[in-house]
Design a protein that fits this description.
Elements: E1 5-16, E2 19-31, E3 36-40, H1 47-54, E4 62-67, H2 72-77, E5 81-84, H3 96-100, H4 102-107, H5 119-125, H6 141-153, E6 159-163, H7 171-188, E7 191-196, H8 199-205, E8 208-212, E9 219-224, H9 239-253
Parallel strand pairs: 3-7, 3-8, 5-6, 6-7
Antiparallel strand pairs: 1-2, 1-4, 8-9
Length: about 270
């Protein structure tokens, strides 16, 4: 199951040391259920803040957010939101299976309706079936993030939010993890929203790329990606991929995009 996300004229302000900081201003966005959307923008533009608003970790100062027509607080109480942070945040004293099962321990394994998929099945899904009894410290960074994704999926959320989960990985591992994430998403078909700094990654992964401005963060462009699914690395040689990358780069940098070197941009 999946749910759509509606964001209407959302803004948020923080008060720091006697000053008001406007993190987001007049953000409106519709994310269809079952879609895969990536948000890109400069550092400190409010990308992560927007994810936290959707997840009901923060409350907006203005505007409205709904998930499947209901407030985020209701979706959170229903355990319909999965969140993968930049760091895996696994508990070091629990083995990988126990870490994946943690949400089930919190809500009650037998009573919660979102417990059809077992931790062992999810570990197989993310390629960690042989490491169920390993401790987090015994796994690589990429493997730990796989475990974090499995943990986020164990309650079968309708919405999956990912805050640049592979940003700390090397480029080779990151590309492998992107392919793994697409494979997992294809099987689960949850509504996915991911924050990234990588133009190529955003285009390769998503149905639509949402471009944000520097703080205060606003949405400046929405670029539909015409690449068919399933995706493969060979599609990065497709002219449509190059066109979409250039569109995102121009939306981010404007006239400066013409002077930027080719390839990856952050």
């Amino acid at each position: 199951m999946s749910r759509d996300i509606e964001i209407a004229q959302v803004g948020i302000q923080f008060h720091q040391r006697g000053e008001t900081v406007i993190a987001l201003e007049d953000v409106s966005l519709s994310i269809p259920k079952g879609s895969y959307t990536e948000i890109i923008g400069p550092s400190c533009c409010g990308k992560s803040t927007l994810l936290r608003l959707i997840a009901d970790i923060l409350a907006p100062s203005s505007g409205k957010i709904t998930i499947g027509g209901s407030p985020p607080a209701e979706a959170r109480r229903d355990h319909a939101i999965g969140f993968v942070f930049q760091q895996p945040t696994l508990l070091p004293w629990r083995n990988i299976r126990q870490n994946v099962a943690l949400p089930l321990d919190v809500v009650g394994r037998t009573s919660h309706r979102r417990s059809d998929r077992t931790p062992d099945q999810l570990l197989e899904l993310v390629g960690l079936g042989k490491f169920a009894r390993s401790l987090p410290a015994e796994l690589s960074g990429g493997m730990q993030q796989r475990a974090a994704i499995a943990r986020a999926l164990v309650l079968q959320p309708d919405v999956l939010l990912l805050d640049e989960p592979f940003g700390a990985l090397d480029e080779i591992t990151r590309q492998k993890m992107n392919l793994e994430l697409l494979r997992i998403w294809t099987e689960c078909r949850t509504t996915a929203l991911l924050v990234t700094h990588s133009i190529a990654e955003a285009v390769f992964m998503s149905d639509e790329v949402v471009v944000m401005s520097p703080r205060p963060g606003r949405i400046t462009a929405r670029i539909a990606i015409p690449l068919p699914r399933p995706r493969s690395l060979a599609m990065m040689r497709d002219p449509a991929f190059t066109v979409a990358v250039n569109q995102v780069r121009e939306a981010l940098f404007g006239d400066e995009a013409e002077t930027l070197p080719g390839g990856e941009a952050y």
